[in-house]
Design brief:
Chain lengths: 276, 276, 276
Amino acid sequence: MSDEDERAFQFLRINQRQAKPRTRGLTEIRGPYYTPMGRRYLADVLETMGAYIDALKFAGGAFALMRRAALKELIDLAHTHTVAISTGGFIEHVLTHGPAAVDAYLNECRELGFDVVELSRGFITLPLEDWESLVRKVHDVGLKAKVEVGIQFGAGGASTPDALAAIGTADPSLMIHQAKRLIAAGADQIMIESEGITESVRTWRSDVPARVVDQLGLEKVMFEAAEPAVFGWYIRNYGPEVNLFIDHSQIVQLECLRSGIWGTNELWGRVQTYKP
Amino acid sequence: MSDEDERAFQFLRINQRQAKPRTRGLTEIRGPYYTPMGRRYLADVLETMGAYIDALKFAGGAFALMRRAALKELIDLAHTHTVAISTGGFIEHVLTHGPAAVDAYLNECRELGFDVVELSRGFITLPLEDWESLVRKVHDVGLKAKVEVGIQFGAGGASTPDALAAIGTADPSLMIHQAKRLIAAGADQIMIESEGITESVRTWRSDVPARVVDQLGLEKVMFEAAEPAVFGWYIRNYGPEVNLFIDHSQIVQLECLRSGIWGTNELWGRVQTYKP
Amino acid sequence: MSDEDERAFQFLRINQRQAKPRTRGLTEIRGPYYTPMGRRYLADVLETMGAYIDALKFAGGAFALMRRAALKELIDLAHTHTVAISTGGFIEHVLTHGPAAVDAYLNECRELGFDVVELSRGFITLPLEDWESLVRKVHDVGLKAKVEVGIQFGAGGASTPDALAAIGTADPSLMIHQAKRLIAAGADQIMIESEGITESVRTWRSDVPARVVDQLGLEKVMFEAAEPAVFGWYIRNYGPEVNLFIDHSQIVQLECLRSGIWGTNELWGRVQTYKP
């Protein structure tokens, strides 16, 4: 690696990070949905911060609106920076088209270069056995299966606190039960949906992450934390190597915090690791 | 059209859209003002979402601060994606420089490649007859005249609810009367300013769009809806083919909603069209 | 200068601006922290609005996470547009590594092409004499020393109003005393930190800028104003040639206001200069 490929200000000790592919401290960033994302912007993000990004997750099925050429440019570019591509939870929409559409979806995902298919059920209800079948199906086509679980029905699309409160949440034990069963079925990673926990709620349910970590550990779990106050809270409680899903726009702020070089007043100078 | 120019995941049925130039379901996006916009970002937006964008509207006269070369790059790029360019409401500033400035303005707009001149009066008051003269003047130089009407004086620059409430709104019947007269004078399209209706207000005036649609229909009318909750509301009430003006950053989220593939909990799976 | 290098719509009189390097009406924009910033986006900003940008300030030490090659591209690009590069207040972190790190930091800043080293103490406390030594040290390596002073301890990282209110603010006279001493020690410019004045507070402390201007004048002072309502307030009170630090995303909106061509209702048509 030439000098120019190394980070600037090498003499400053910062919290050490594993080289990619990492097993701890993974950061997944959200792709186009709340903002557009084209190949120039993605190149900007990856050239400046790519070393700290493990995966790029599409949202809302935005890729299904793009020309194949434009989509493949994004996917290929991410791959040159060793960034995995996840579908996000579009399977929920595909399921409404029936089982043949699921097959076609998974095949086209593989063909386009997706690495991870997310299996969520924020907007729909689905028997747990069928969810397990989807995990196996994703593996059958040679892709990774990331499961998203949560306590809030109707999650996944920026709904208001009132709208979601009216629906009510499920007990966290259900979500944890689902996660355990899906891990047993082979799920590669578990995403914890933030709605009902730290998003679209009046008061954070801090008991929920505590139970998740107690029951599932940190290794296979990634928390959705697409607000600076939320990712600050996860790092304060679970350390700088907790796996987090954030918005693409937040990658600099998050990595300043993980690395221990900057933060809000409560965390400035306080984010430490020990790697002797 | 080659495969690569087609959208990905063709096997999924989504709400059909007319090819451009469209007559229904038009989307106009806001250009540089609340954020910068250069040719690389615009290329990103157009390469990934250009099929769903009908027009690009400048705001606040930002083009008058740019070098001609940079401005023409934006305009030419938009044209290669069949996106029309609107001036936004800068005529209000130009009018304060007198009638010769209006002539010079319209001529330079045409020379630079603008397609549409917006004629608004959010910050100024102007006799209706003079407004009609402006419509004809715009047509005389060979451009389209888009009129923006509204109920809020002082609209057009992100003022606070309190500041605008202190001024008070006009009765919607005045705005509708103006729109009818300006359509009779040849106005090509009517933009409904959101301030006083869904923006900078404490409670939305949902009666106003209802009266607009009742009196003017949907075809020539475009609603300003530069907040996701607002464009969601318009689509819920008027269907996915209502003409909307949004911020450039919102194009993916809006098109996911129009196409029926994603949305908030209340609209997820509910946005339908029937084109046998 | 060819026609294409001139701004469009030359026939419109706008508030005259000095050519760069300016001594009045300076605008410094924030670089990557709350968002990423790569060379393509920066090129977009500079090609369209570069004439109105005097300096680019990094934040949170984000440069220390970038590859040297990517960082130098940003710096070199800014220089081609006559935009100075400031470190932002990363010295606070460097100081925790001891005096040798400070030397290494300043040398690498010079080597990479930084023009200005900001010397702040929002998160740390530091004897005033040591602060003066830093000003001299920065000059010794041939760079400009910009001092940031403020009334809020714990400032510099988007903390909440409650968190900062619990800490309390210092009397403005202390900040002004510091600024005077540091100017006497050779500081080239004074940045007034907005936290505790117009940011992360429930009510703005409008008395503080008044005392700053009364005691220090406007020439060497720059106000942090990274919210449109804040920079609107400074322009209303101190005119369009007050020096302001804003977010990169706000440059169009600010310059529309400085130039007198657009604004909110209270300022539309009201921002004037007189240069006979």
